[in-house]
Amino acid sequence: xKLVDLRSDTVTRPTLPxxxxxxxxxxxDDVLGDDPTVIELEQLAADLSGMEAAxxxxxxxxxxxxxxxxxxxxxxxxxxxxGAHPFHYEAGGAAVISGAQIxxxxxxxxxxxxxxxxAALRGPDDHYAPARxxxxxxxxxxxxxxxxxxxxxxxxxxxxxxxxxxxxxxGARVFNAVVASGVxxxxxxxxxxxxxxxxxxxxxxxxxxxLCGPKDMIRKARRVRKMLGGGMRQAxxxxxxxxxALTHHVARLAEDHDNARYLYEGLxxxxxxxxxxxxxxxxxxxxEARWLVDRLQEAEIACFxxxxxRIRMVLHLDVIRQDVDRALQVFAMLRP
Length: 336
Ligand SMILES: Cc1ncc(COP(=O)(O)O)c(C=O)c1O
Description:
Layout: E1 4-5, H1 16-23, H2 36-49, E2 53-57, H3 60-71, E3 77-81, H4 85-88, H5 93-98, E4 101-105, H6 114-120, E5 131-137, H7 150-162, E6 166-171, H8 174-181, H9 185-188, E7 194-198, E8 209-213, H10 215-227, H11 236-248, H12 253-269, E9 273-274, E10 281-285, H13 289-298, E11 301-302, E12 304-307, E13 310-314, H14 321-333
Parallel strand pairs: 1-11, 3-4, 3-5, 5-6, 6-7
Antiparallel strand pairs: 2-8, 7-8, 9-10, 10-13, 12-13
């Protein structure tokens, strides 16, 4: 039986045309700056985001951490929402790589208001770690795959700018936000200082993320990436997959959103408690989350319990409607 893998949209395998694009790639040595396919991908990312420059990164984690390192000095404070990825899942990197202190603020499903940000800002005082950077996550993973409303995003960027803070977006799944909102990336990114996004999630590339920002920041980011061991040589093979993903797999994210909605509605009709999906993630509430995940696994449906009472299921290009139907059949047998 085929495994229906709902653990993450990171599990996607390259499609045949993507592999063909990788095999046909012209490559050079990107550490020496002459890999034409990497250069082309970086140009495309810069164009799409409306930023001056972009840098190909091995992972979303490195893209976020390099951004934090670029915008802060040791002892500075980075403000982010309580569920944010760099706080929960980046191995304490901000402390080690940047010597930065993370300050958490509370949002609603991963989205916070400008007022909440302003309330967290403290004046200049030697007691405090100076706040330098705000990080927003769009879509918000632990928030439920939620999309930042454009007005809120703009207002948070404006509040940060007024206070002299930079704004980084962890846009690991920002194209899900683009497709769900119908707002182009360059518009969503208008108020940002920098943006990272992943090619290796719903877009289906095997590896890679982009960091976009102003030219001088990206120049610095290139050096920090090298310092962290993230300089890649014939990276054009991977960049070709990323380029293919950006040119062929963005619009189809809508299918994942439809499947998420279909899964959610099926679960609710079976009597499960689930959070309304905005993009490609369905979060289920169950007091027996770990037990349920184990039973699903026995039936070849894979997903994660992200807490004792919360299960996450992620839709992506390797999950088709029939797979969702099969998952729902198993849920029907396990229903509360
Ligand atoms: C919101 C968010 N940011 C960053 C990352 C990190 O990406 P990577 O796994 O490529 O390091 C992830 C990965 O799941 C994520 O969900």
